[in-house]
Each structure stands twice: as structure tokens, then as C-alpha cells.
Amino acid sequence: MKHIIFIIDGAADYPIEELGGKTPLMAANKPNIDMLAKNGACGLFKTIPDNFSTCSAVANLSIMGYDPMIQFHGRGVLEAAAMGVELEKNDVALRCNLLCVEDNKLKSHSAGQLSSEEGEILIRNIDQQLGSQSIEFYPGVGYRHLLVLKSDYSDEIECIPPHDHPGEPIAKLMVKTLSKKGEETAALLNKLMLNSKPILEKHPLNIGRVKQGKEPANMIWLWSPGKKPYMKTFQELYNIKGAAISAVDLIKGLGIYAGFDVIDVAGATGLYDTNYEGKADACIEALKDHDLVYVHLEGSDEAGHDGDLKLKIKAIEAFDSRLLGRVLKKIDKEIKIAILPDHPTPVKLRTHVAEPVPFLIYDNKNRDKVEKFDEFSCIKGSLGLLEGDQFIKKFLSKG
User: Fold this and answer.
1) How far is CA 267 from CA 270, 273, 275, 299, in A?
2) Cβ of 183: how many Cβ atoms within 10 Å?
């Protein structure tokens, strides 16, 4: 049997007063998702272990059945893999955001959603002025970039995810050391971040953005450090050939470590304006020679981080009508489908939280009494509350 896992990143939420106590998933018009829920089996999945980071890397590791307590080595190493950056054993890789700081407070983790072309110009300028043989910056997608530290730097440091702290003073969010060994690295990273600010503020691209009424990308932010991990592939674990479709380097890198073929789709942006139809067609094509296709949509998560309720609902509806609906028209009944967010990103909080997410599994065989797909309906599902590798084993019928 063929398998598809659809990840609607950050789609889960809390009840919202403006929606009459509904969540975005409850308010959205999503007939295709609801149809699968009605004809499948549902439950809740605890993707974030207790007292652990709520980042997407952790959540997606859990969805794939890996143990984040063992395999999570930061987002940087995953994004390096996606970008084709080879890491040596002692290299430390970190995510590098281009973000907006105003009045010494973190205004936006994404600087108003930079284009990839703008991001590349700015990060290459930073590499020219702050980089060296042991400090290397690499351009990624949009506001998401990469820093690799060579030599004897340490990952025994504590870095703050910027999307978790909108509106807070940057002074209290700087890198801290977790050991004596990490002191030099923490000091270096804080110096790089602070020194980037005058460089980026004076850059013609940012001067132009301000004139156009846009947020300037006036500082880099370094976080999620780690060293190269080792993970068994899906072929080794389950004898399954997989493919990953995403615009986000984090998911691509995770797919690479899992042994998946990573499929790029023209026009895939990681935002609401992504190429839904292109992703749908790529999924259908990938099913011809893969056992499992992992399709990731980022738009609802970004809307949650921006606190944009209307856009979050639109992103959920666009996934339903333009991607899922297109796929359902072209597949046969022998395909097993799962749909779930990786974590909630409530629009009122603008950050990830650790509550369990709703999920559905559809295989045209097992069915419960759930009528719609949302946080509260799925509580009543027959699959109950899953955690650890229970979801992937249930989905793949491996136990």
C-alpha cells in the first residue's frame, strides 16, 4: 500500500473569541479534510515530549517516529543537509534568521517575510563582513539562513528561538552558556548578532525597504545549535522508500537524514502564496515510485507567528481545496492518508505550544464516529492519544 502524510504546520490553535469560541480548524471551510476524517479514524498525537523544545524539528522527528531526546541535534544541522552543506564531525551548525528589531525589541522573526533574493543579498554581505575561514554564512530561503562554525566551537550553549519571543527586549534573549566549554562560543555568537545590526541597517536594500513602508531585516539571530547526528533511514527501519516535499530546509534536511528523496517544487515558498497545485502534482508523481510521500505546508504556521487569524484560516482552506482536493481526484482507494499539524501555533500567542495535535488516518477500511477534523472533534476519535513512535507505527501498520 502507498502512503501520504500531509503536515499542515502549526494549524492547531486555541478557541478564539472573534470566531465565537471556535478554532481556525473549526472555522475553516475544509470539506476534503472533513470527508477524510468522517471516513477514517482520528485521535490526538503528543508530538512534543514533556519539558522539551516546541520547535518544528522536534515535532516532525516525532511524527516520523524518531526519538527527539536522542536524534534532535538542532535545526541548523537539518538545514545544512538540505542546503548541501557538508558538516565535519566537530562543526557546529546554527539557524540564522534575518529579522527585524525595533527600539531594541524583537519586532518580527521574519522581517516581514523577505524574498529569497533579498535574503541572499543580505546574508552574503554579512558573510563578507563578519565571516572567516572558521565562521561561514550560507544563504537559504526567505529569512531562513545558516551559520557553520568550524574548529573547536561548542554546542553547549542556550539559544533563544526568535519566533517564541515577539515584542521582547533582545538584551534578555542573547545566547547563554551551558558550561565552561561553551563560554567562547556564546560570546562569539552574541558579538556576531550585535555587530550585524549596524551593517544591515545601512544596507541599501534595507534603506529601500523602509522607504517602501516595509520592515527592515536589520539584525541576524543565531539559534538551534548542534552537531551532525546519526539516524537510521526509513529503508533500514521499515523497508520503505520515501519522498519529502517542502519549501522549508528544515523538513528537507530531516527527509535527507531519514533517507527520503527530496523533491523541489517550483514556486514553493513556505508561505500562504506557495504553489499548492505544484505540490499536489509532485505528490501524485512521487507515488509512482515511492512507498511514502511526506508533504509539508508551512503557510498556516507563518500566519500563526504573525498573529494573522484570517490568513491562517485562508492557508488551511487553500491546502484543502488546492492541494488535498487535487490529490484526492487523482489517486486510487489503495492509498493510506494521514493529516495532522506538527504542533499548535496559536495566533494569540504567536509561538509554538506543546499541546497534542489532532490527526486523522484514512485507508477506506477503518472508521470511527468523528464527523469533522479539529482539536475537539478528534478527542472523541477511536485512536486515542498517541505519543513517541506510536503514530508512525499505527500509520504504517508496523505494530
Assistant:
1) 9, 9, 5, 13
2) 15
Q: Give kind and range of the element (H or E) at residue 98.
A: strand 92-102
Q: What's the mean pLDDT in 113-136? A: 94
Residue 350's CB: how many other CB atoms inside 10 A? 20
Structural domain harbouring 195: 81-226
Query: Of the residues 226, 253, 273, which one is the last residue of a structural domain?
Result: 226
| Residues 200 and 220: beta-carbon distance below 8 Å | yes
53 and 124 together in one domain: no
Dist. CA 108–CA 100, nearest whole Å: 5
- CA–CA dist 42, 51 (Å, integer): 26
Same domain, 340 and 269: yes
Number of domains in the chain: 2
Q: How confident is the model at residue 399 (pLDDT cuts 50, 70, 90)?
A: low
Q: How far apart are CA 279 and CA 323, in angstroms?
A: 7
The closest alpha carbon to 12, from 20, 22, 24, belongs to 24
Residues 376 and 241 reside in one and the same domain:
yes
Grade residue 74 by pLDDT with cuts at 50, 70 and 90. Answer: confident
Is the domain of 237 the same as that of 343? yes
Report the relative pairing of strands 41-46 and 385-387 from DSSP bridges.
parallel
How far is 144 from 130, CA to CA, in rounded Å?
18
CATH of the domain at 380: 3.40.720.10
DSSP 331-381: --TTEEEEEE-SSB--TTTTS---S-EEEEEE-SS---S--S-STTGGGGS
pTM here? 0.82
